[in-house]
Amino acid sequence: xxxxxxxxxxxxxxxxxxxxxxxxxxxxxxxxxxxxxxxxxxxxxxxxxxxxxxxxxxxxxxxxxxxxxxxxxxxxxxxxxxxxxxxxxxxxxxxxxxxxxxxxxxxxxxxxxxxxxxxxxxxxxxxxxxxxxxxxxxxxxxxxxxxxxxxxxxxxxxxxxxxxxxxxxxxxxxxxxxxxxxxxxxxxxxxxxxxxxxxxxxxxxxxxxxxxxxxxxxxxxxxxxxxxxxxxxxxxxxxxxxxxxxxxxxxxxxxxxxxxxxxxxxxxxxxxxxxxxxxxxxxxxxxxxxxxxxxxxxxxxxxxxxxxxxxxxxxxxxxxxxxxxxxxxxxxxxxxxxxxxxxxxxxxxxxxxxxxxxxxxxxxxxxxxxxxxxxxxxxxxxxxxxxxxxxxxxxxxxx
Length: 399
What we know:
- About 45% of the residues lie in helices and about 10% in strands.
- It has helices spanning about 60-75, 115-125, 135-160, 180-195, 215-220, 225-230, 240, 260-280, 280-300, 325-340, 350-365, 375-390, and strands at about 20-25, 25-30, 50, 55-60, 80, 105-110, 170, 175.
- Helix 4 (about 180-195) runs antiparallel to helix 8 (about 260-280) and helix 8 packs across helix 9.
């Protein structure tokens, strides 16, 4: 085929052999090679031109429909049309009345499928009653899925038209909101908490027997206060059992160095901003908290280093890990898996970025010391499971 697009000043003809249908929006114009442009006028609309190729004719409309259903299950888009001399009756929905005999032409939508479709047509003519052509039920299911996807797209378009002026867009995608208060708040709290605790190394008090302010904040926000841990016989949940449940989430706001803080905050900003703008602050907050908590719990539940072989010491568990990387991996896991399960989801992770994130996680397990790899793995699992659950529920415009 020649160019598939038209511009404002010219209509580029599609170089199709045999018969063809030229589509403009919802209208079709029967054409032929070398058609007389003076015989009709095509409205000036800058829309794509699609050329369909005729591959043959079947005498029985019911057999033509049977063959068309089979092609659909083979991912070949086709259409059946009556021959001009046959003109079978049509149903109110545009289908063919099987009780009226008449030959039907078979048209293929994609040029790349033409040769395969011709081969399938020859096979069908040789054995039209073969069981493999009993594809009506599967074809109905595929059409139903296609219809549902079209409804989702229309829903997105309606949301884009209805959104308030100034709400903005992300790479051309309609947004639920422009502001990202949860992301900004998480970054601000992380910066304050990290500086207030001496980046994981709080300075001791000059007064013997008393805690410095940095020590008090650090011990109060860690997963477990080390004093409770020692007095309980190394119970990582000792402080939480006392009712200090905030410790499940507060370790994600603590960081061990300025580089650690900067790296996690950049990742949180870029991943979190996309999710919060698309799906709202409540969803972003819940995903961040869930990923952070689950990542922290996995880090605590893993066995200690002395119970693991040397090769797997990177997977050793501890209740004293800090940092937002588990939550960040949860955001990454969500944005990685969600578009794979919901094709209409407008944001996709580039394959190179996915490889970098997963490769970095594996690299840290085997080659980097003092990394909370359990939190990375747990956060990633939380994000993936959330994406799988949300994609099965009608919670947003992309499900």
